[in-house]
UniProtKB/TrEMBL annotation:
This is Single-stranded DNA endonuclease.
Length: 131
């Protein structure tokens, strides 16, 4: 799977040049087999170091390597995937607060979606929304 489209890469690079801004996440990566969700808001000029909200057991703001995500090998030859339906919708500070309160990015997304704070285009990657 292509982890970043050209449009996403351009937007992340642009955000990376705008310091001290509460950006809306551009892309969501996830581990389809377990823990691991990353909401990226920025990409450094080197094209590798991303910034955003990462959750590999506890959600926290920070930086990570896109190349390291790209080379993670999971069962059945799979790797980290990009959520094709993710739209961001809120600044990273809102995501961070919701994820800390809920305990994870996935739980925060479910709560935000069910509360009506997220539009219908964004769905959790592990569970379909319930009526």
């Amino acid at each position: 799977m292509i982890l970043l489209t050209d449009t996403q890469r351009d937007r992340l690079l642009t955000n990376g040049r705008q310091a001290d801004t509460d950006h809306i996440p551009v892309v969501k990566f996830f581990n389809p087999f377990g823990a691991g969700v990353w909401l990226a808001t920025e990409l450094d000029e080197d094209g590798d170091i991303m910034f955003g909200l990462a959750d590999i057991g506890y959600p926290e703001l920070g930086s990570w390597s896109l190349n390291e995500l790209r080379y993670i090998r999971l069962p059945f030859g799979m790797g980290i995937e990009r959520d094709l339906l993710f739209t961001g919708d809120f600044p990273i500070s809102v995501w961070a607060e919701a994820a800390r309160d809920a305990g994870s990015i996935r739980d925060a997304e479910r709560l935000l979606y069910r509360s009506g704070r997220l539009p219908g285009g964004t769905h959790p990657d592990t569970e379909p929304p319930r009526s």
